[in-house]
Amino acid sequence: MFAFYKTRGISLIDKLDELFSLYGYCLNTLHSFEFPGSSGMAKMQEIMADFHKGIDSIGRNNVIRTEDYSVGLNGLPKSDVLKYYTDHGSVVVRPSGTEPKLKIYISVTADNKESAMSEEQRIVGELSEKMKR
């Protein structure tokens, strides 16, 4: 790829910027929220139960579809995983299989890096508040 674009006088950064302008900037992050102590597991289960009730929006994005893997989906085994598809990305919530933590995978698509980072931080802030309840 490097050689192909170099012969045309195009850097990989230029090509990447072109792709961002065509499709938007994609940002993917992972955040873990720990719940130590003897009450940690109960707190995690309480939070997951709250997520299972459903949410209408995350950050500034409407939730347009939810996938609940607790029933098994797409040939995958049952798992306490929820995936929320939004207008501009997705959020996956799942408990860790080995540690007392909830993991949140955030995927945001925006016009540029700054907008994507801003929305990702808005989502993290909102979900952080949900973890404190």
Roughly what is the average pLDDT, rounded to an integer? 92
The total of beta strands comes to: 6
Strand content: 25-35%
Q: What pattern of helices and strands is seen along the backbone?
A: HHEHEEEEEH
Highlighted features:
38% helix, 4 helices, 133 residues, alpha+beta
Describe what this molecule looks like in 3D:
- The protein is 38% helix and 32% strand.
- It has 133 residues and is an alpha+beta fold.
- A six-stranded antiparallel β-sheet has the order 1-6-5-4-3-2.
- Strand 4 and strand 5 (89-95) form a beta hairpin.
- It is elongated.
Short description:
With 133 residues, this protein is α+β, with helices and mostly antiparallel strands. The chain contains four helices and six strands; from the N terminus they run ααβαβββββα. It has a six-stranded antiparallel sheet.
Question: How would the blueprint of this fold be written?
Answer:
Elements: H1 2-6, H2 12-23, E1 25-34, H3 40-52, E2 57-58, E3 61-68, E4 82-86, E5 89-95, E6 101-110, H4 113-132
Antiparallel strand pairs: 1-6, 2-3, 3-4, 4-5, 5-6
